[in-house]
Design goal:
Layout lengths: L1 E6 L10 H7 L9 E4 L18 H11 L6 E6 L1 H12 L4 E7 L10 H16 L5 H18 L4 H4 L3 H10 L14 E6 L7 H10 L3 E6 L6 H4 L1 H14 L5
Parallel strand pairs: 1-2, 1-3, 3-4, 4-5, 5-6
Helix pairs in contact: 1-10, 2-3
């Protein structure tokens, strides 16, 4: 039996992968061929609240402890979970039978002009102590929410609170593009054609840098294939689990 460990995305949970787990573990020919293990990554539920700000290496250490004593397994990482999976694969390739990156994050881009202006605006707000004035604080809060959600299309930072706010800052500042070439296990990249969070250009870069990699693009799918098209995603995962091999 093949074992697949799934690492979910930021502010997500194992429940979001319930349908994929169900389909993968469905018995074929009277026997179960795949065991799926989908843990909750620390920080996103009341029972896993962080007691300090973490960085990506902390999540890798957590994963090392979680899989301690296990035989070789396949590792799947989605979005933020892809970051953790990439770093783990670089450090522990001998532990893996294969790596699956679904709309994985980790490619840091140069800040756009509008982002630079936003960062300068944030510095100005802090300097002028706007946030100490309730009315100005509320106005700034509404503007910031509009900027992140409708201009950048990102809500991860806004949804983070407590130690997660510092944690996501630590995570986002790390660029993994320089270590992709160190991944030495067969890797399947699965991407939604319409992904706006981790765009398809990231997939092509990873495909270029990861030696034993293949890229599968899901048509009319965005950043969450496991929710948008679980059956199609499961088909691609199974193809890789049972037929993967070195290819370009």
């Amino acid at each position: 039996m093949k074992t697949l460990i799934i690492l979910h995305g930021w502010q997500s949970s194992k429940e979001k992968w319930g349908k994929v787990k169900e389909l993968l573990e469905k018995e074929e020919g009277g026997s179960k061929e795949i065991e799926v293990i989908a843990p909750d990554l620390p920080g996103f539920k009341a029972e896993t609240t962080l007691e300090r700000a973490w960085d990506l290496d902390d999540y890798v250490v957590w994963l090392e402890q979680f899989v301690a004593g296990r035989e070789k397994f396949f590792l799947l990482g989605h979005s933020f979970g892809g970051r953790v999976a990439i770093k783990f694969a670089v450090k522990h390739s001998y532990r893996l039978s294969g790596l699956i990156l679904v709309s994985a994050a980790g490619i840091k881009k140069e800040p756009t002009l509008i982002r630079k202006l936003m960062e300068k605006g944030s510095m100005l707000v802090r300097k002028m102590k706007f946030e100490e004035t309730p009315i100005l604080k509320n106005i700034w809060g509404v503007f910031k929410k509009f900027f992140y959600q409708f201009i950048l299309g990102k809500t991860d930072y806004l949804m983070a609170s407590g130690f997660l706010k510092k944690t996501i800052k630590n995570i986002l500042k790390e660029d993994l593009s320089s270590i992709l070439e160190k991944i030495e296990v067969p890797t399947c990249l699965i991407w939604g054609e319409e992904d706006k969070i981790t765009p398809l250009e990231d997939a092509y870069l990873m495909k270029k840098k990861i030696k034993l990699s293949q890229l599968k693009i899901m048509k009319k799918v965005g950043h969450t294939p496991h929710l948008e098209e679980p059956e199609g995603l499961v088909k691609l995962i199974k193809e890789f689990l049972f037929f993967q091999g070195p290819r370009r």
